[in-house]
UniProtKB/TrEMBL annotation:
<protein>
    <submittedName>
        <fullName>SRPBCC family protein</fullName>
    </submittedName>
</protein>
<dbReference type="Pfam" id="PF10604">
    <property type="entry name" value="Polyketide_cyc2"/>
</dbReference>
<dbReference type="InterPro" id="IPR019587">
    <property type="entry name" value="Polyketide_cyclase/dehydratase"/>
</dbReference>
<dbReference type="InterPro" id="IPR023393">
    <property type="entry name" value="START-like_dom_sf"/>
</dbReference>
Amino acid sequence: MKSIQVNQEFNAPLETVFEALSKHATYNDVFAPVQVVRIKDSADPERPDGVGSVRKMGIGPVKPLKEQITLLEVNERIEYKIIKNPLIKHHLGIIEFKSIAANKTLVSYTIELQARAPFVSQLILAQLKLAITLGFKKLAKTLA
């Protein structure tokens, strides 16, 4: 199984960074032009983007990727998986949050991926790593 990890420091409190990255809508700004739309709310009315929520992602009217939040530990960790995708055998996203100072937060974003076709995993992961790195740098500027 192939994986990538992106680490980004944010000059903002842990709670602020977690709140931003726990909302599906944030990813519209972070990963533009990719659009993210919540299509199923979680069972928790206080946190509709929480465990069990489903988001679809893509560009314009074409949003073929669906992800489901499988774990949400406030201010610590978010996990999600791709659902119903015939090209992907395994996909797990893990976003971990750590306060490293009063107004400084470290986010570690790990993605495990196994595509059904050989060599595709490495290509997808390379694109994801670039997009996440650029997106996190952009978000870090807005949260500072």
